[in-house]
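User: Structure tokens for both sequences below?

Assistant:
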Amino acid sequence: MINVTHLTHAYRQTPWRIQRQWAGTFLLGVLALAMISALYLDVTAQAAILGREIQYLRADTTEIEHANADLQTRLAMLSSADSMEQRALALGFRPAKAGEMHYLVVPGYARPTGVRLANTNPPVSAPSTPPEYTQSLLEWVAAYLQQPASGVAGGVLP
């Protein structure tokens, strides 16, 4: 009994231990909150950096698309018939006359045929349906009424 009272008396005499425990618990909570906040800020910063990079890449893509469209326009202008004729005349070419053209026959050359868009296969005929299945209800009733009454009396139906 003396040991138990001695232990209780020892703890009562040192209130700084209890204060140190509370301060340690509080500081541990603050440290955990600071670590969670730092992790959140790191993830948020990485997401913002990646978002900015995506914006830069989209801007680059748009700029490249505009440059490509510009180049296609310039190519179309340079390969137009008027532009080609002007450049050919500037290089010293002139339109050929009827007597100046010579054709060369190449053995084994097959002239390319144009593209046919029409269907060359004959249409497949639809399977023939027996007349029993092509008769409408009104046609069947009219045929039934035109038959003689003896057929009905004998138990024969059309």
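Moving on to the next sequence.
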Amino acid sequence: MLSYWEKQSLIGYDCIVIGSGIVGLSTAISLKEKAPRRRIAVLERGLLPVGASTRNAGFACIGSLTEILDDLEHMPAETVVQLVNLRRKGLQLLRNRIGDERMDYRENGSYELISAPEAPALGRLDEVNELLGGILPGPAFSIADDKLPKMGIAAQHLIQNNFEGELNTGKMMRTLIDLAIERGIEIKTGCEVLGMDERADIVSVRIKGGLTLTASYVCVCTNAFTTDIIPGLDISPGRGQVLVTEPVKGLPFKGIYHFDKGYYYFRELQGRVLFGGGRNLDFEGETTTMPELNERIQADLEEKLRSIILPGREVAIEHRWSGIMAFGQTKQPVIKAHSERVFLGVRMGAWA
């Protein structure tokens, strides 16, 4: 039962944003910048986001060569260019908003390992560079085989991506939270949304426990979990798994790396190796919102860690986790009006 004061002042908003990940917080901050007097609340069902925003590998990606070539097999070239451009613009917006120092953004280099069966991709490098030439200030990819010996990595070839970087995910999210609070945005955790009821002039948001909040507009930014609120959308979850080693003495590489069409990715992290991926081993099993680890994929990550990334070296695993991404029939994100008062910013695809 609500008090008079609560009903009068504490449950009504100009806008409610559902989801406190990167997209949700960025949406709320952008709305507040455009209308500082607008009252905005961000709702998060857990104490922390449970998707991919705080559980990724800290890669700032536009797409590896083999990933883009694979996309060209399934999408028109103009759609592929549009996706790469969206990723690049999104990164630029994030860097401008936060500042590189506040999220430890660095460009130590992004590389892709090319196996012998993938060697034909090298013959299409110039084609892809030309395709992306209109949206990038220079060639995206170049061959970097000369760097392989010093890295100690088992690969036939190495491609450098000139427009990717790495960041500290925790600091990035902490800064977005701080910016939201500084601007007067309310962030309500432990606030699970059960559904919405839209009328001509208002949207009622039903919260677990019996509370109903109201807003003139609602932005849904819950990525893989969106169909829990709005059924029927073309959104499927995809679990990604990560492990981190103990510190590795004399680790011979820095920067971020991809291989196998972007399904695997690793980086140096404070003298450790962070390594994730393997979803392509079990697409059906990884189409889930459950956080449990897949033993088969974890074993595969450990095998590739010791055979490709650190060949001939034994290293202990210090930590493991998973995060939930969102996919659909295409890789295009869903950024649109769902109705007159409800808007979507979901299906943001893979993490990194």
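User: Anything stand out in the second?

Assistant: DSSP finds eight helices and 18 strands in the chain.
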